[in-house]
Amino acid sequence: MNRLDFEIIRNVIAAPKDTSMILDVPMILDVGCENGELLKFLNKKKKIDGRGLEISQKNVNICVKHGLSVVQGDADKDLIAYPSKSFDFVILSQTLQATHSPEKVLSQLVRISKYAIVSFPNFGSWLVRLKLLINGIMPQSKSLPHTWYTTPNIHLCTIKDFKKLCEKNSIKIEKSFYLNKYGKQINNPIGKIFNNFFSTSGLFVLKK
Amino acid sequence: MKNSIKTIILGKKIPLFLDSGKQLKNFKIAYQTYGKLNKNKNNVILICHALSGDQFTAGINPFTKKPGWWSKAIGPNLPIDTNRFFVICSNILGGCSGSTGPKELNPATKKFFNMSFPVITIRDMVKAQKMLIDELGIKQLLSVIGGSAGGFQALQWAATYPENVISAIPIATSFRHSAQNIAFHEVGRQAIMSDPDWCNGNYIDKKKTPKKGLSVARMLAHITYLSEEAFQRKFGRNLQNKLSVAYGFKTDFQVESYLKHQGQTFVNRFDANSYLYITRAMDYFDLPNQKKGGLKNIYKNTPVKFCVISFTSDWVYPTKYSKEIVDSLNAVGANVSFVEIQTDKGHDAFLLDEKEFNETVRGFLNSTANIMGVN
């Protein structure tokens, strides 16, 4: 099954704010590309020069088998090797919360690419808040399926937290997308204003 | 599968200009091919062998009657599928399996080269391979694949002839020899040269063989090709055909017996002077030093697609060296994939039947061939 944010990512890449800056065949790095699903999905409608960084050997093998150029590595350690602005887009989909140092990773993302597309589960969503309030235990949901002791998500944050971190690092948020639990964009004005309360996850296009 | 032994004379008109400044004319390169060259001549894969390898990579080696050193990876329906690809493997220059090397006759003097053979480099070997490919009428290699010193050659091919190489798979390798690599090789060379039967390199004329020296060199090297875990798993402290230690210096432990066997079988198939020359060529390998700005400048704008593979327990060329290659390639926007295979089998893992490794090679080759329209 596709990750919920695939289509939004594709739309962002198809219609960047400043097209003059983007190559005809955009260079895209998918950080934490898993089995290459997103890269393949993106390549279907528009030709891209896609690369991947993936931690699991098995997943890298699957990617290589499908002709994708994927390097086995770790977002926390290996982004530093890429030269500045070497990609048109770098994608970090639902992975930021699992990195050791989100601040450093975020800074690397906006350094190595013209635009960074980052999505993550929103811990400020009313569903999460309600679960914690009523049950008093660490909330589990579709986008946060793990128990507190098995979760790889060691740096969970809310949309508000994320925006603050961007501001601290002078990272500009070019576009914001707020998604409900079905992965659909929240378009009603109240939902948009109180996005930190209503959205299950957020997707942001960043620039520095 | 039986193979006829193929040898070609190269450098008839234009000699091979060696890195040392010397030249080689009318030299021999022995090679084998597997599979069929297709009409478009776009299904060619060059296999580069390592220090102690030879051109008999697949099928049965006609001399030893044993399976070729990479017969598990190359053949019909195997990862390097000879139903689809035309595979060439040549004995490296300086080798002892039919190509010109120290044990061959110098055509100019009609005497054995011995130590008068010029010192060669990895780049010289690759230049000789390019002359072979040209002679065979092949313009482009779909892939150049090699492990260890074969990986040096794959990297060198991509550096020297980027227009002739679609992809390269350097395996269990590095971009230069480290101090430790040189150190191990030097002990091996000293073992050979301190054997009285080496006769200053003229043992063929004296009808002798420096068996002890070459055997010790191989025993030492073989330790480095495995890992601590692999030795422990294979032998532990098991005794060889006895129930208790003999309080002496004959073979007590299985691991001793194994190493001695490795040394002895090697002596029967390998030339001591070749061992000196090839280890020297490996020690001289320093790819970043070939161009100002190092690896990044060497592969700047490279059209070659890379698939770099390393093994977790390889301590001859540990993963960090492969990673440095990958980082340099990423830094210049090159098309690179990289996999580190989990194994306890050490450096030699690339010769063994590692499933994940085989699948990576198969997948990368097939996808590259599909992109290039190889049928």
Number of alpha- plus pi-helical segments of chain A? 9
Total count of domains of chain B = 2
CATH topology of chain A: Rossmann fold
What's the count of strands of chain B?
14
Low-confidence stretches of chain A: none
Tell me about the largest β-sheet of chain A. Answer: 7 strands, mixed
Question: What is the compact description of this entry?
Answer:
The complex is a heterodimer of chains A (208) and B (375). Chain A is of the alpha/beta class.
Please explain how this structure is put together.
- The complex is a heterodimer of chains A (208) and B (375).
- Chain A has helices at residues 6-14, 37-45, 57-65, 75-78, 102-112, 126-135, 159-168, 189-193, 195-198, and strands at residues 27-31, 49-54, 69-72, 87-93, 113-121, 172-179, 201-207.
- Chain A has 208 residues and is of the alpha/beta class.
- The longest helix of chain A is centred in the middle third of the chain and has 11 residues, at 102-112.
- The two termini of chain A are 32 Å apart.
- Chain B has 375 residues and is an alpha/beta fold.
- Chain B is built from 10 helices and 14 strands.
- In chain B, the strands form 4 sheets. An 8-stranded mixed β-sheet of chain B has the order 1-4-8-5-11-12-13-14, with helices on both faces.
- In chain B, a hairpin with a 5-residue loop joins strand 2 (16-17) and strand 3 (23-24).
- Chain B is globular, with a radius of gyration of 20 Å.
- Chain B starts with 5 loop residues before the first strand and ends with a helix.
- Classes of the chains: A alpha/beta (208), B alpha/beta (375).
- Chains A and B meet through helix 3 and strand 3 of A and helix 9, strand 14 and helix 10 of B.
